[in-house]
């Protein structure tokens, strides 16, 4: 069976196995759909390169729309990666976002949505990178799935041990400040992978647009796990 279908089949067949990634109240809390493509003319390169200005813009959007969190990004072709040379390659710059971002205050608790174990973790501390990062490994009735959590606090990494068993719904980390999370306004990069391709503590969260089809084969839509009700998302 196709791994994407396998994953969907597991999730639909084990509704109690999937827990929250961030704490939110579906009755009271709202998520604002942030747009970081070229169609967003409110942001320019100077704004996104300056982390403070970028953060002020995001916070203003959330306040304006009365939303607790910002959200979005899966397979979004983003212009904001011009802010860091990390995403520039000689043939084609990487601009395709491969996970979902949840923008919220530093210190926000992050939870494991599925039972599993700690595969790896490290501080990817380059400008524009993930900063502190955790990868969990899950065995879903024979299907291996990895979940990645980027832009965490450094304190989050001090409590971890490779191979340690993690329960569904267990707190695993907190969002980091800009001075520790790769120089981004506080947010979680949440990503799913079937294959880590031998990597440890890191896996690309941004790819080449020309490779979108290949990337999607290995990187499912995180909404399969997040399951945030559409009624709570403000576009």
In words, what does this structure look like?
The protein is an alpha+beta fold and 235 residues long. It has helices at residues 3-13, 45-49, 51-64, 154-157, 212-218, 223-226; strands spanning 31-33, 69-72, 76-77, 96-97, 100-103, 109-111, 116-124, 131-140, 143-150, 165-166, 171-174, 187-193, 206-207, 233-234. The protein has one domain (3-234): Glucose Permease (Domain IIA) (Distorted Sandwich), CATH 2.70.70.10. 19% of the residues lie in helices and 26% in strands. Strands 10-7-8-9-12-5-2-1-14 form a nine-stranded mixed sheet. Strand 7 and strand 8 form a beta hairpin. The longest helix has 14 residues, at 51-64. The radius of gyration is 17 Å and the shape is globular. Pfam families: Peptidase_M23.
Which structural class fits the helix and strand makeup?
alpha+beta
Q: Under CATH, the topology is which?
A: Glucose Permease (Domain IIA)
Largest sheet: 9 strands, mixed
Shape verdict: globular
Radius of gyration: 17 Å
In the CATH hierarchy, what is the superfamily? Glucose Permease (Domain IIA)
Domain M23ase beta-sheet core: 96-193
Pfam families: Peptidase_M23 (PF01551)
Keywords: Signal
Organism: Mucilaginibacter polytrichastri
